[in-house]
């Protein structure tokens, strides 16, 4: 049925071959994995920061309990320490975002622009057409 077709933004341009669709799909999959890795990096950043604040609370309680030597050592050697030489986690996040992540996103966008007119998720849109049951509730091509 004519009204149950993919929207124009998810149709494969006529001059794009199957191998190119597959390659762009793999590139998109790789970018999605990088996006997940970035999310884990932000999780690492937030968890490390939370741990440092909890450590500060522990240092204060140890001092209050009279364990000054241990509190001083934790305060001096660990509290606020760089996680890698010269860097806190926010700096790792910034370097990742400004470098690898931004480059990856830009190159993926460039590949889609050059090879498929900027169309996203061509491979997935094709899978949807292959796997859905046209005319069945919940299997519509578009909202």
Protein model, in words:
This protein is an all-alpha fold. The protein has one domain (25-130). The chain has helices at residues 18-64, 68-77, 89-116, 122-131.
Estimate the global geometry from the Cα principal axes.
Answer: elongated
Structural category: mainly alpha
Whole-number mean pLDDT: 94
User: What proportion strand?
Assistant: under 5%
Number of helical elements = 4
- SSE pattern, N- to C-terminal: HHHH
Low-confidence spans: pLDDT under 50, at least 5 residues?
A: none
N- and C-termini, Cα separation:
15 Å
Percentage of residues assigned to helices:
55-70%
Radius of gyration: 25 Å
Number of strands: 0
Main beta sheet strand tally, sense and closure? none
Count the domains: 1
């Amino acid at each position: 049925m004519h009204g149950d077709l993919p929207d124009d933004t998810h149709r494969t341009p006529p001059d794009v071959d199957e191998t190119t669709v597959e390659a762009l799909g793999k590139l998109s999959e790789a970018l999605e994995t990088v996006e997940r890795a970035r999310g884990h990096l932000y999780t690492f950043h937030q968890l490390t920061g939370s741990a440092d604040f909890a450590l500060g609370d522990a240092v204060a309680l140890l001092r209050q309990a009279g364990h000054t030597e241990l509190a001083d050592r934790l305060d001096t050697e660990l509290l606020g320490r760089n996680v890698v030489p010269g860097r806190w986690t926010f700096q790792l996040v910034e370097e990742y975002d400004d470098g690898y992540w931004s480059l990856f996103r830009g190159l993926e966008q460039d590949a889609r622009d050059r090879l498929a007119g900027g169309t996203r998720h061509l491979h997935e849109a094709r899978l949807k057409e292959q796997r859905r049951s046209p005319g069945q509730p919940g299997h519509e091509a578009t909202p």
